[in-house]
Amino acid sequence: MKLWLAAMTVAVVNWLMKAGGPLLIGHHKLPPAAVRVVGLIAPVLLAGLIVTELGGKRLDWTQLIGVAAAGILSLVRLPLLPAVAAGIALTAGVRLFI
Predict the structure, then answer these.
(1) What CA–CA distance (Å, rounded) separates 95 from 51?
(2) Less Cβ crowding at N or C end of the chain, within 10 Å?
(3) What is the predicted pLDDT for the residue at 23?
(4) Interatomic CA distance for residues 51 and 39, integer angstroms
(5) DSSP 33-82
(6) Taking 80 as the threshold, does the pLDDT of residue 48 lie above it?
(7) CA dihedral 8, 10, 16, 22 (to 10 degrees)
């Protein structure tokens, strides 16, 4: 029972935190500096997740090759889904032939 109560409390607090921003500044425009910072949050979080996932107990070079390929394809303006699919295919190919 305590676990469910804790889970529900965390869910409600999370929802209130997410709803708090639009409720407090919903009709105001953010300054340009804040807009730039908010725009960088998603890529930074994604990069952090990739680094922590790749930097586990042992480094898998095939994953590193696939992530690098997807990153390079994304830099040359290929849409995200095909870039990730190409990274996955390259990782699978490298693993198949090594």
Answers:
(1) 20
(2) N
(3) 73
(4) 20
(5) HHHHHHHHHHHHHHHHHHHHHHTSSS--HHHHHHHHHHHHHHHTT--HHH
(6) yes
(7) -130
More confident residue, 83 or 25: 83
Give the H/E segment covering residue 15: helix 2-25
Token pair, residue 53, equals 């996932």
How many angstroms separate the CA atoms of 82 and 95, rounded? 20
How far is Cα 10 from Cα 7, in angstroms, rounded to an integer?
A: 5
Q: How far is CA 40 from CA 5, 13, 81, in A?
A: 35, 25, 20
pLDDT in tens, 49-87: 877 887 767 778 888 899 899 999 999 999 999 999 999
